[in-house]
Amino acid sequence: xxxxxxxxxxxxxxxxxxxxxxxxxxxxxxxxxxxxxxxxxxxxxxxxxxxxxxxxxxxxxxxxxxxxxxxxxxxxxxxxxxxxxxxxxxxxxxxxxxxxxxxxxxxxxxxxxxxxxxxxxxxxxxxxxxxxxxxxxxxxxxxxxxxxxxxxxxxxxxxxxxxxxxxxxxxxxxxxxxxxxxxxxxxxxxxxxxxxxxxxxxxxxxxxxxxxxxxxxxxxxxxxxxxxxxxxxxxxxxxxxxxxxxxxxxxxxxxxxxxxxxxxxxxxxxxxxxxxxxxxxxxxxxxxxxxxxxxxxx
Length: 298
Description:
Layout lengths: L7 H27 L14 E2 L2 E2 L5 H9 L11 E3 L9 E5 L7 E9 L4 H11 L5 E4 L1 H6 L1 H9 L3 E4 L11 H19 L1 E3 L1 E2 L10 H7 L3 E3 L3 E2 L9 H11 L4 E6 L6 H16 L3 E2 L2 H5 L4 E4 L1
């Protein structure tokens, strides 16, 4: 009597087929479920820096919340218009004689915006609650637009200092380009329109001042200088120069660009402190021009 015994190999093969069928079915089910789940983001894979702004790390919850909320509208910045009174339009101004000899004085700062130096001076001005007037070079604005925006955001006045800072004689077309191109970039970058103009080096006979006057700009010069472009002088000399010549209605010349202005930065806090001790109040050039009884070089 014989018995049939199932082949062991065939039995194993059948078991393997059954296991495989179940594995495929489970895999299909798992994939269909996973497709409806948003994959988790690993925070250590998020960029830590987007040049030049440092982006702080955020946890997953804050990321999801920020994605579900509508984007915040950017803050609207009101356009500023630094116009000058009719009395000063088309005139060259050195200083203003305030009524009752009120002790007001204006710091004017040329040749920026400049990396590092302008930022350091802004910090000092902010700490001392002082507003200044910055006369900008077009090429410097083009190179440092974010610094320019900060200057305006912190309440300082802006003037035009040409595109190239050239001293040479220019025809009308060149003078127009130097001034109007800079004014256009000031407006495009910061939203500011200005009728304040300062010729590079204080040169009044190379065509720039003539064009500016024909367009009713106020050609703003200065009544005293810190002499901070002297390569040999120490910062203390700049302080002495300003204090020695300070008078009510003075316009002080300083620089934040065009070279190494480290000594100017060093001198600025003492200049401000010493003038305040003498009873001076700091104003911008536009504020100074609103004061009556002006002394004008016609």
